[in-house]
Amino acid sequence: MPRFDLPVAELRSYRPAVQTPDDFDEFWARTLAESRAVAQPPTLTRVESPLTLVEVYDVSFSGFGGDAVRGWFVVPAGASGPLPTVVEFNGYGGGRGLPHERLAWAASGYAWAFMDTRGQGSAWGTGGDTPDPHGTGASASGFMTRGIDDPEQYYYRRVFTDAALFIDAMRGLDQVDDARVAVTGGSQGGGIAIAAAGLSDGLVGVMPDVPFLCHFERAVGLTDRDPYNEIVRYLSVHRDAVDQTFRTLSYFDGANFAARAAAPALYSVALMDPICPPSTVYAAANGHLGGAEVIEYPFNEHEGGQGMHWQRQAAWLAARLQG
């Protein structure tokens, strides 16, 4: 796909005025406090597997409203903690899958934690294990418009709360050095990582890879691809819901979380990305409170830098930990 967004020089300085609710901070402080008040300690169950060089644990922890959420926790075999830890979030439609599918961080000496995304896991990959027990009003197909008529009921309120409480749960483990926790994820996982960083103190780094869920007002209508186009389809039917829809989305915009994320960040952006347009990524990266380095992939679409970018993440995080 040819480049369709702003020129590169404009992207690098792009700092749009993103709608921010007056009660954004109060909304999230209350949301997290309510769920933390009913949270139970996480449970870890050792999983027997052919992976002899790592130890694999099935995780269950309390997420939004005390709901049970699943995940994986993997550490190098025989490692004595506490270890630097990478908490990872998944792309849109995927579930936690199987632990052998993602071993790079544990193979590099880190503890690695991977959160299942509630309600997802049936679009690609090898499945998810966390239901979303909360119903919502009218919505289009997919997850983007579930509960979109009210921020209190919106789907990503639950997901972002899960992410913040997953970090809480992992920090309570003996194997985890709670002062050396970083977050990462690609696409939706990158958007969740930005939100988690805006909601969690003391992270050592944030590594959003071609992040989704940023600068909704620009993304919706700029691209004709899903998942953003789910909102277009919804508004094509609910013609009188435009203002309320974008008001709801403003509570979940990655640009607003980035402006509150004190940890330094390494973003990636693909300049031909038709799913997460480059300007939406830069809207978050250029306003990131802790400062952000952006790695550009000029001739890639949403796949971004893939394995090459992981190498850059690993080098960046190692330098952060040594510094």
How are the elements arranged and paired?
Blueprint: H1 8-11, H2 24-37, E1 43-47, E2 54-62, E3 68-76, E4 83-89, H3 104-107, E5 111-115, H4 155-171, E6 176-186, H5 188-199, E7 205-209, H6 216-222, H7 228-237, H8 242-250, H9 254-258, E8 265-270, H10 278-285, E9 292-297, H11 306-322
Parallel strand pairs: 4-5, 4-6, 6-7, 7-8, 8-9
Antiparallel strand pairs: 1-2, 2-3, 3-5
- Under CATH, the homologous superfamily reads Alpha/Beta hydrolase fold, catalytic domain
Average pLDDT value?
96
Uncertain regions: pLDDT < 50 for 5+ in a row?
A: none
Number of helices: 11
Number of domains: 1
Report on the biggest sheet: 9 strands, mixed
CATH topology: Rossmann fold
Taking all Cα atoms into account, the compactness measure Rg is: 19 Å
Span between N and C termini?
40 Å
| Number of extended strands | 9
Global outline? globular
**CATH architecture level-2 label:** 3-Layer(aba) Sandwich
Largest sheet strand order: 1-2-3-5-4-6-7-8-9
Please identify the structural class as seen in this structure. alpha/beta
Written account of the structure:
It contains eleven helices and nine strands. By secondary structure, the chain is an alpha/beta fold. It has one domain (18-322): Alpha/Beta hydrolase fold, catalytic domain (Rossmann fold).
Summarize the structure.
This protein has eleven helices and nine strands.
What labels describe this entry?
Cephalosporin-C deacetylase, alpha/beta, hydrolase, 323 residues, Rossmann fold
